[in-house]
Design brief:
Elements (H helix, E strand, L loop, with lengths): L3 H4 E4 L3 H6 L4 E6 L5 H12 L3 E9 L3 E4 L2 E4 L3 E8 L9
Antiparallel strand pairs: 1-2, 2-6, 3-6, 4-5
Length: 92
């Protein structure tokens, strides 16, 4: 059984993410195999807010190099969640 905490992994706290907060948009790292409907239900259940819109994208892993070895970070899925008017997620 997959829970809402398996779908929504973390709230992404970046400079770009904080600039979107006045527009009621929040960035989340979500499970790669989740869809928009599952993400919407999970966020509404966890944070007790109403979701207006969700945009998702896959963030490719960045190339990293340690001495002669070359590798990359793990790709992940990002969800940009827009809340309905008057809704807010309290970030501490």
């Amino acid at each position: 059984m997959i829970t809402c905490y398996d779908i929504v992994k973390t709230l992404v706290r970046t400079e770009k993410g904080t600039f979107l907060e006045p527009e009621r948009k929040y960035l989340f790292q979500v499970a790669k195999n989740s869809n928009k409907i599952e993400i919407k239900k999970a966020i509404e259940e966890i944070f007790k807010v109403k979701v207006q819109d969700i945009n998702t994208c896959i963030v490719r892993g960045k190339l990293k190099r340690v001495r002669q070895e070359q590798g990359s970070t793990t790709p992940w899925k990002k969800a940009i969640v827009t809340l309905k008017e008057g809704q807010k997620i309290e970030v501490t």
